[in-house]
């Protein structure tokens, strides 16, 4: 695979690709609940129904979120099905992020058909492990979201003018 067919990202502060990070401050609304970022949504789902869920949703800093996660982990309130559903939760959160935030959506769609890689040596599950040996599930999620957004747009254009969706 040529380097030109790959888009690498990781740092939330990187312009313009920082919007690919779950930490980017792109608020999302899911089931009438607003979350400051995909990171907040993801962790609220991880600890859904627990005493820390609402605190995570309203946390205003990463430091506060990390503190709440440590507390939740020490209390053992993680969902029992978390390992099975976490990738789907990440996919859903990112879909809403890019669907609801046109600036981020534009940047994602500008990647065209390029492979998206979360390039980091600190994560071999969501990232590429820094050397390509990781699973790069975040990159895979973003490519799936990109594909879905393009399909949504194609289907929207097929809608007859004046018709309503049910």
Q: Could you report the average pLDDT, rounded to the nearest whole number?
A: 95
Number of helices: 6
Q: Please identify which CATH superfamily we are dealing with.
A: YbiA-like
Structural class estimated from helices and strands:
mainly alpha
Global morphology: globular
Topology order in helix (H) and strand (E) letters: EEEHHHHHEH
Main sheet record? 2 strands, parallel
Low-confidence parts = none
End-to-end gap: 42 Å
| Strand arrangement in the largest pleated sheet | 1-4
In the CATH hierarchy, the architecture is Orthogonal Bundle
Q: Structurally, how many domains make up the residues?
A: 1
Strand content: 5-15%
Radius of gyration: 17 Å
The CATH class assignment is Mainly Alpha
CATH-defined fold name: Tetracycline Repressor, domain 2
The helicity comes to 40-55%
Q: How does this structure look, described?
A:
The protein has a single domain (3-158), classed as Orthogonal Bundle (Tetracycline Repressor, domain 2), CATH 1.10.357.40. The chain contains 6 helices and 4 strands; from the N terminus they run E-E-E-H-H-H-H-H-E-H. It has helices spanning 38-46, 53-58, 62-75, 82-100, 102-109, 137-158, and strands spanning 6-9, 28-30, 33-35, 115-118. A hairpin with a 2-residue loop joins strand 2 (28-30) and strand 3. Helix 4 packs across helix 5 and helix 4 packs across helix 6. It starts with 5 loop residues before the first strand and ends in an 8-residue tail after the last helix.
